[in-house]
């Protein structure tokens, strides 16, 4: 039975049958596929696909999100490759398209996230499971909105890298999540998704109430917290779980619970 679906960058895909051999090149989407009951159909993942933790010992590793082994993927004879506009380059998507359909997600908002889950339900014939996860996320989201509505707006700088120092800017899922938490990103108007910043300008560029040091992709240490802190006026530095701020998919259910805990601590 032919099924034609359009992915989140507008590419149309026609499937004659439900894809049974999946390669996932995005860690959070790998986690979602497992949560949708598709673990047995996943044949290839990246070295960063760390949830569930045992998956790396049972699936073929095809490289990283930006540096993949095309020959390994081709040898797996996938029916579909799952990518993301931010995580994987256009060149990767174009080259993989010669092997099989490449489904690309593009996620900035909760609605985008739910659309991705709905689409996976359609592609893989997991509509009931997909709807369950969408319902769980919507319930957690509505509950969190009640929790957060009276919290004061706080200015934050969300660091993702050191040497050079880089932060989350606009048009990122992280920025959207910060807004949901009533955290005003002082670098929201800066050019680029993950702009480099000069620490000595941090007070001029917004003087945050909090400096968030993400647990990924860079392993921040106390010395980084001290160095950044010296340039702020009174900011409190907090080590935060980067997966909760940047992973989409089913992770959002856990994320809203994590944010409640975070707010109670700061």
Kindly summarize this structure in a few lines.
This protein is α/β, with parallel strands linked by helices and 266 residues long. Helices cover 37% and strands 18% of the residues.
Please count the beta strands (DSSP E, at least 2 residues each): 12
Mean pLDDT: 97
Series of H and E elements: EEEHEHEHEHEHHEEHEEHEHH
Point out poorly predicted stretches.
Answer: none
How much of the residues is beta strand, in percent? 15-25%
Whole-number count of domains:
2
Class computed from helices, strands and strand pairing: alpha/beta
Overall radius of gyration: 19 Å
Q: What would you call the shape?
A: globular
Query: Any idea what the CATH architecture of the largest domain is?
Result: 3-Layer(aba) Sandwich
Give the helix level as a range of percent.
25-40%
How far the N terminus sits from the C terminus, by CA atoms, comes to 54 Å
Tally the helices: 10
CATH structural fold name of the largest domain: Rossmann fold
Strand order of the largest sheet: 5-4-3-6-7
Largest β-sheet summary: 5 strands, parallel
Within CATH, the superfamily of the largest domain carries the name Nitrogenase molybdenum iron protein domain
CATH class of the largest domain, please?
Answer: Alpha Beta
Please tell me about this protein's structure.
- By secondary structure, the chain is of the alpha/beta class.
- The longest helix is centred in the middle third of the chain and has 22 residues.
- It is 37% helix and 18% strand.
- The model has no long low-confidence stretch (mean pLDDT 97).
- The termini are far apart.
- The chain is globular, with a radius of gyration of 19 Å.
- The protein has 2 domains: 138 residues, 3-Layer(aba) Sandwich (Rossmann fold), CATH 3.40.50; 115 residues, Rossmann fold (3-Layer(aba) Sandwich).
């Amino acid at each position: 039975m032919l099924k034609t679906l359009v992915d989140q960058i507008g590419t149309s895909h026609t499937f004659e049958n439900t894809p049974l051999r999946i390669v996932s090149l995005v860690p959070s989407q790998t986690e979602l596929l497992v949560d949708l009951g598709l673990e047995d159909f996943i044949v290839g993942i990246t070295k960063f696909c760390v949830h569930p933790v045992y998956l790396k010992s049972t699936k073929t590793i095809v490289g990283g999100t930006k540096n993949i082994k095309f020959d390994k993927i081709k040898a797996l004879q996938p029916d579909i490759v799952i990518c993301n506009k931010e995580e994987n380059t256009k060149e990767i998507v174009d080259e993989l398209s010669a092997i099989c359909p490449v489904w690309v997600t593009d996620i900035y908002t909760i609605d985008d996230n739910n659309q991705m889950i709905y689409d996976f339900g359609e592609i893989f014939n997991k509509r009931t499971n997909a709807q369950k996860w969408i319902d769980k996320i919507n319930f957690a989201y509505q509950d969190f909105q009640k929790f957060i509505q009276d919290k004061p707006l706080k200015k934050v700088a969300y660091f993702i890298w050191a040497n050079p120092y880089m932060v989350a800017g606009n048009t990122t899922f992280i920025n959207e999540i910060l807004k949901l938490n009533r955290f005003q990103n002082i670098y929201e108007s800066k050019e680029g998704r993950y702009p480099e910043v000069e620490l000595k300008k941090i007070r001029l560029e917004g003087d945050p109430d909090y400096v968030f040091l993400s647990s990924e992709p860079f392993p921040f240490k106390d010395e980084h917290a001290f160095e950044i802190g010296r340039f702020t006026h009174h900011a409190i530095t907090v080590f935060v779980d980067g997966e909760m701020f940047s992973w989409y998919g089913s992770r959002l259910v856990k994320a809203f619970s994590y944010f409640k805990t975070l707010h109670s601590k700061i």
